[in-house]
């Protein structure tokens, strides 16, 4: 008896074992939907709006919100700078910025932003 994966196969020659094992590996590797199609899983019926970081924050940033900032080397410094500009210009208050640790300077921790960001 031979065991292939979790399947027990009686009296399999080495040649047939290799064929069965190759077939099982093919089945295992093709379990992902995206291996055989390039179509979006949720296609849009319209074109997306392309905006600058500042325009995006002007549309959605409000007082009292919580903003999560990715940390380490993936810190989106241009986005955080745009958020700071919009916060200052829009007279926003009490925006909580949550992150682990960020790299580079953070404009939102400047003394003039103490009432805008926490």
From TrEMBL:
<dbReference type="GO" id="GO:0006083">
    <property type="term" value="P:acetate metabolic process"/>
</dbReference>
<dbReference type="GO" id="GO:0005739">
    <property type="term" value="C:mitochondrion"/>
</dbReference>
<dbReference type="InterPro" id="IPR046433">
    <property type="entry name" value="ActCoA_hydro"/>
</dbReference>
<dbReference type="GO" id="GO:0008775">
    <property type="term" value="F:acetate CoA-transferase activity"/>
</dbReference>
<protein>
    <recommendedName>
        <fullName>4-hydroxybutyrate coenzyme A transferase</fullName>
    </recommendedName>
</protein>
């Amino acid at each position: 008896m031979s065991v292939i994966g979790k399947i027990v196969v009686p009296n399999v020659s080495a040649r047939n074992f290799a064929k069965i094992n190759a077939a099982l590996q093919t089945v295992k590797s093709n379990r992902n939907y995206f291996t055989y199609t390039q179509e979006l899983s949720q296609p849009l019926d319209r074109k997306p709006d392309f905006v600058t970081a500042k325009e995006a924050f002007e549309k959605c940033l409000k007082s009292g919100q919580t903003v999560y900032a990715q940390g380490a080397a993936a810190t989106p410094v241009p986005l955080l700078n745009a958020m700071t500009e919009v916060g200052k210009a829009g007279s926003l208050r009490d925006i909580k910025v949550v992150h682990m640790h960020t790299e580079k300077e953070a404009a939102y921790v400047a003394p003039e932003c103490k009432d805008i960001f926490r």
